[in-house]
Amino acid sequence: MISGLLATPAHTSPKYLYDRLGSRLFEAITELPEYYPTRTEAAIFDAHALDMARAIGAIDTLVDLGAGNCAKALRLIPALCPARYVAVDISADFLAEAIAEVQRQHPALEVSGLGLDFSASPALPGGSLRGRSVFFYPGSSIGNFTPAEAHHFLAGVRRQAVGGGLLIGVDLVKPIEVLEPAYDDALGVTAAFNLNLLRHLNHLIASDFNAREWRHVAFFNRTDSRIEMHLEARHALSVSWPGGERRFAAGERLHTENSYKYSVESFAALLRDAGFARSEHWLDARGWFAVFWAQG
């Protein structure tokens, strides 16, 4: 974390966006008219849940990576009928409330939660997986990884899902006038979500970021096919923490998140390169989003 703050350009991992408040702000983002991914993916699940269930087959353990409020899994559990559900999220406090709701709605389902940072590796603690395991990674969070990091991550999932597989949501390339407002909404909720990262860093490393001194910046980088989110210093400033300090010039940026956008063909190739035997996918009517099933 500190090494990223001291780097040129400065950067942090997007996982630091998701403390308890950050998770709630992201929930609010998914309700915004500009933010198409959540409702578009939900429409795919509603239209094709039974097709997905037929493609996937019997599931002993459904592992929900980045489960958040578990709403996406709740949409699919009736069709997929897993014997066990394991929700995994970096925000353990937020997750506890969510899995209680899953258990309330599905009292016969064996439910457990793991407060775990899986960004470096999707490897789960021993005993988490039983029988035929299917990993569920919705919401296009795979886009937060660089393509090389995504390959490493997907290969790690495949190693754990032998005999099972991965059901994953992927955001696709689309017009810039659709992409950019989804990450820079008119109400400023995404700006608050991004700025909250500074408050979270202050808690984690005892730094003295002042959110009023920064502004939210988001844009589509066509060359790398990704949305970038940054925080930009409004004036020259200094940030310190025990044992360290970083000076920022006016206009200098702290890079907080990438969200890579794929084509169907490029993501299918990425799954093949990561070792999945085969894949199939479902799209929304506009071709904005894809859900892939990859056989382990």
How many individual helices? 9
State the name of the first-level CATH class of the largest domain: Alpha Beta
Please give the number of β-strands.
Answer: 13
Helix and strand element order: HEHHEHEHEEHEHHEEEEEHEE
The secondary-structure class comes to alpha/beta
What is the CATH homology-level superfamily of the largest domain? Vaccinia Virus protein VP39
**How many structural domains are formed by the residues?**
2
Radius of gyration, taken over Cα atoms and rounded to an integer in Å: 19 Å
Q: What proportion of the residues is helical, as a percent range?
A: 25-40%
Largest sheet: 7 strands, mixed
Q: Tell me which CATH architecture of the largest domain applies here.
A: 3-Layer(aba) Sandwich
Overall, the morphology is globular
In whole angstroms, the N-to-C terminal distance is 33 Å
